[in-house]
Amino acid sequence: MARLLFTFLLFLYALPGIASDSTEVWLLVPNQKQQLRMAIAQYEQLKDSVWYTFPNNLLLRPGDTSRYTAHLRANLLLTGDLTGPDSTENSSHYTRQLATALVRFQARHALKADSIVGPRTLAALNVPPLQRLRQLQNSLYRWEAFSRDLPQPYLIVNIPDYTLRLIDRNSVLLHLRTIVGKPNLPTIVNHTQLHTIVFNPYWYIPNSIASKEILPILKRNPGYLAKRDMELFRHTALGGWQKISPWSVDWSTVTAANFNYRIVQVTGQYNELGHLKFLFHTRVSQYLHDTNDKHLFASEKRAFSHGCIRLQHPEELALYLLQERSGMSEQRIEKVIATDKDEYYIRLKKPVPLIIVYLTAWADEFSVIQFREDIYGYDKSEVVRLEQ
Predict the structure, then answer these.
(1) How many domains is the chain partitioned into structurally?
(2) Which residues belong to any copy of the Peptidoglycan binding-like domain (predicted)?
(3) Residues 321 and 172 grouped into a single domain
(4) Regarding beta strands 309-311 and 288-289, do their DSSP bridges make them parallel or antiparallel, or are they unpaired?
(5) Which of 200, 194, 161, 195 is nearest to 178 (CA)?
């Protein structure tokens, strides 16, 4: 298995990647609902407490002196991040003990745990307990909706946490960073099955992207398509598609409204889907896929896509699925991995349940309540788009 994994990684990536995140088991806490209910009770009390907010331009580092230090101390005492009495509780000095408490707060909110009160930490501190209560209540409702009788193994993507986890035999086997849809192009909540792996996929560019984002470029430079390994097709009278040169089109007459073309990006270094694509049942054009642009995975906030879910290390997921769900021998798997065929489809013998959820609050394996930013505003509207 180790040799096979090395072969796969070597084939897909010439340079070593970043290791997958640690495999904590936050979704396997057996008393998750009980923990959420306890947190709801806690925040029911906190919602009437004095909660201090901070100016957006505030910057605090350990050792600083500020009149806002007392407010920070009071908030962190309420949330339980400051667990003991601060020896300088009436001081304006930002102590080491208070810095340690802020690091706990930052870790629970997936922020850089640097003890610095900066823009993103300020945004989290300025969320009042009533809003956190709403997050907890909504997450409990959503948890109950998808957690009944989950067969193992299963894949779970938590959109606000920007993660995918593979759960099997009550263990987290994979924990991958993800990039999800922008707020105006959200990834859709879904309970479905992943059924197919595509090696070396083509990208059939959606008309909305082609007409709104690529068309303005073509008006300036029709040669753009060739530079990006893209091909242009025209819709024919018989209902098919005919490959044409982008130089044969008078782009000055083409608008988003009358755009009657298809753009396809073939396999290559510029392919937006990278080397792998994973298909699941859905009524919208969304899927899991690799990417040729890895640097965005270093960002804390990763809502950058047009709705699809990008995976930081998709080769790890593909290897597991081939070994455990394809019914193939190891020799056959090695041949599949080594293929240079374009658009090479592998249908899984045993599809894997895939749950795409929107949880902005949960209890981790240490019974610590985690919060994430409500990137799509679902907690405010109390509406979640769900595909059945």
Answers:
(1) 3
(2) 87-125
(3) yes
(4) parallel
(5) 161
The average pLDDT across 279-289 equals 93
**Straight-line distance from the first to the last Cα atom of the chain, in angstroms, rounded to the nearest whole number:** 36
For 274-299, give one letter per residue: b (16+ CB within 10 A) or e: bbbbbbbeeeeebbbbbbeebeebee
Amino acid at 87: S
| Residue 170: per-residue pLDDT | 75
Q: Could you list the beta-strand ranges (E) of 266-357.
A: 276-280, 288-289, 303-305, 309-311, 344-357
Active-site residue (options: 195, 275, 289, 313): 289
pLDDT at residue 374 tops 80: yes
Do residue 297 and residue 360 come from a single domain? yes
Q: For 298-349, how does the pLDDT look when each residue is reduced to its tens digit (9 = 90+)?
A: 998 999 999 999 999 999 999 999 988 888 887 888 888 787 889 999 999 9
- The answer to whether residue 81 sits within a structural domain is yes
Render pLDDT for 131-187 as a digit per residue (tens, 0 to 9). Answer: 999 999 999 998 888 776 678 899 999 999 999 999 888 788 899 999 999 999 999
Element at 323 (helix H, strand E) = helix 314-325
Selected catalytic residue, list 109, 195, 308, 313: 308
How many residues are there in the chain?
Answer: 388
Is residue 6 located within the same domain as residue 61?
Answer: no
This prediction has a pTM of 0.85
Q: Could you tell me if residue 41 is inside a domain?
A: no
Q: Domain for residue 20, yes or no?
A: no
- Determine the structural domain holding residue 218 and report its residue range: 203-265
188 belongs to a structural domain:
yes
Q: Which helix (H) or strand (E) holds 177?
A: strand 171-181
The domain that contains 327 carries what CATH number?
Answer: 2.40.440.10
306 tagged catalytic: no
Instruction: Report DSSP state, residue 251.
Output: G
